Amino acid sequence: MFRYFLFLFAAIVTACGHQTQPAANPFQPADLVNPLVDAANSRWFFFSSACRPFGMVNLSPDNLVEGEWGSGYRYDVDTIRGFSHIHAWQLAGVSVMPVNGEVDYVRGAEGFASRFNHQNEVVKPGYHKVLLDRYGITAELTSTTRVGFHRYTFPENKPGEIVFNLGGMLGPSEMTDGSFRKVSDTEVEGFTTNAPTRRRPKPYRVYFVAQFDRPFQSLDGWAGENLQKNITQIADVRCGGIVRFDQPGTTPLLMKVGISYVSEAQARLNLETELNHWNFDQVVNDSRDTWNEWLGKIEIEGGTHDQQVRFYTDLWHALQGRRIISDVNGYYTDMTGDSPRTRQIPLDATGKPAFNHYNSDSYWGAQWTINTLWGMAYPRVMEEFCQSMLMMYRDGGLIPRGPSGGNYTYVMTGAPSTPFFVSAYMKGIGKYNTEELWTALKKNHGEGGIMAKAGYEHDTFLGGGLSHYLKNGYVPYPIPEGNFGFHQDGASLTLEYGYQDWTLAQLARKLGKEEDYQYFMKRSEGYKKIYDPATGWIRPKDVEGKWLEPFDPYNYEHGFNESNGAQSSWFVPHDLAGLAELMGGKEAAVEKLNKAFETAAKQGFTSGKSHDAELQEELRRIPINYGNQPSIQTGYIFNYLDRPDLTQYWIREVIDSVYSGVDHTSGYSGDEDQGLMGSLAVLMKIGLFSMQGGANEEPIYEISSPIFDKITLHLDQRYYPGEKFTIHVKNNSSQNRYIKSAKLNGKPLESWWFYHRDFARGGELELEMGRE
After folding, report:
1. Rounded to whole angstroms, how far apart are CA atoms 140 and 131?
2. Residue 50 main-chain phi, psi, to 5 deg
3. What average pLDDT does the structure give for the chain?
4. N or C: which end of the chain has fewer CB within 10 A?
5. Closest residue by Cα to residue 603 from 614, 592, 612, 611
6. Contact between 372 and 433 (Cβ < 8 Å)
7. pLDDT single digits (tens) 274-331
8. Hey, is 473 helix, strand or coil?
9. What HEC string does 544-590 produce?
10. Does residue 336 contact residue 407 with C-beta atoms inside 8 Å?
11. Quick check: helix, strand or coil at residue 471?
């Protein structure tokens, strides 16, 4: 178990700047999570506090409410503009605020905003507490998966009010077309609508039911600029409701808010099913127990206190961002057609939904992050995401690459869901109709499939340049048909398509489809057509086959998606031997890559410490960037070039520089993207990785240099025969980062990798470390 000492818990409290409530057993992984890491650079869906793993409800304060970036909880902003229940990819909704005194309701969030102080704040997994200075109200938040639970302590001898703000900007969406209605003197219900965005093309409605533990005295509301007294119902493009209580006194007011994307009736069902009592502290403790169960799938021993804090914060992020959108009975809203349709997830033998339906940002870069981590520690989650995407295929005809509220968003590029599916299939995660699975994935790799679309290209299939790729073996830059979306950088598209085609080829071989195997393997060699031997880099070509002039491998987004040529030239995870041969052999490739790391080290291996900094041109001129997905695999390439010692060295350097911070100013150095960077950091710190994303016919794990003395992964025996897989690391230290010898289940391991099947059986990996 954990080698934690008594002083560590007090140290956590000090480091987080708050006190936590007493608990029966304080030495648990949830107590080590620091939600405030990188909170000064927060994105709408980044920050989390009152939330369960993958929860539909992610209840937390909003300091800023305008836009996808720089919104939600922002540590350096001293004002709270509401507590909203949804912080998801392109989704928001149901913002509430306790108030008293003079309030300008019709101004929306700015009219009832309040300052606060971090000294009067408690933030931990499943719980958030803060004092609203303007009103003297203490707000406490917790949740179940689909229900937000609020406890508000008002000043004595003052009336209390709860404001439901159903209009105005809230993160990525403008909230519009709301409705607010009295059900009884202890219950209200309504909805608000996420207006379409550039990324999510159709509106999406959020329904809610709110119940109070005592009767309220009256309801007011506003529609547009008009405040209305003593209402029973109000609705408008921009509206809100005000629930008034007559001097709640010192006894805290309790409010439960159930949400659904289907109907008010479904929101009420979610509420009554998941939270049929009023014991706030019990829900806080239940949430903590849930997080301990999930985070405890990986136990660590050794390392410093800060390393333990950061590890469980990373793992916590790996279980965030991507959110459940289906109700307790399996109902969900399908937006793939001309109008919303209510669908039903299949039920299992017990009458419960067989899986959850999910909202998700892109799987772009997931092959090196959640594909591997979820497959090891959370195979049930991986299967549910696969089944969820197959449901969307049945509904709308395509496997998505980043669904939002039942919409196709076409976020990012390529067919990144293919490696996710193939990785799951190769590991035996899930049961599928193999012909349906093959047909669905293959469709995405052809004309009329996801691969043909640029980022957020909703109405055409031209921006991905797929027709040129199929004809000439590469995607030109620029794409001659014109601009149809984002990320139309041909060299990156060629590299991405090649890897994804390779993963599909592996599935074809597994299914005995030899002709398809040969076809997609041939397609996967397109990178060779855009490697320029004169410069030694992958280099964009136009449609006539002419190299991009002038060419600067450090020039950002000139043929390369969210990267430059120096970073993306290494994006050939499926054929590193072939890439090295083009570069002049393994020794030449090692020299080139090692020099890139030496150069990147001077800049901390990132383009600055935040996404805002990454946008600065001078910070983009870096050959390796661990703040975004395109080059996060590069440290492990040395393994494939016969220099595992350099993998062990540089991975430790990247951990120390990029993924070790435990304060609010840094932590993920750019774009965490719903657990991708958290997952990567976890894999680095336990010393396991998968260059091909687990899509090999026999998946493998590559070994680097773990930072802990002992790591225990508890296996899900519904999927794997083994009980646990343990990594023992002897003589471990920051200096002793090199593997001198290795044993797998007591037998010498002569290679830098081992099979997933050995992991699945359970066992022990022993590593003896040294300075050389």
Report:
1. 9
2. -80, 80
3. 94
4. C
5. 614
6. no
7. 999 999 999 999 999 999 999 999 999 999 999 999 999 999 999 998 999 999 999 9
8. coil
9. CCCECCCCCCCCCCCCCCCCCHHHHCCCCCCCHHHHHHHCCCHHHHH
10. yes
11. helix
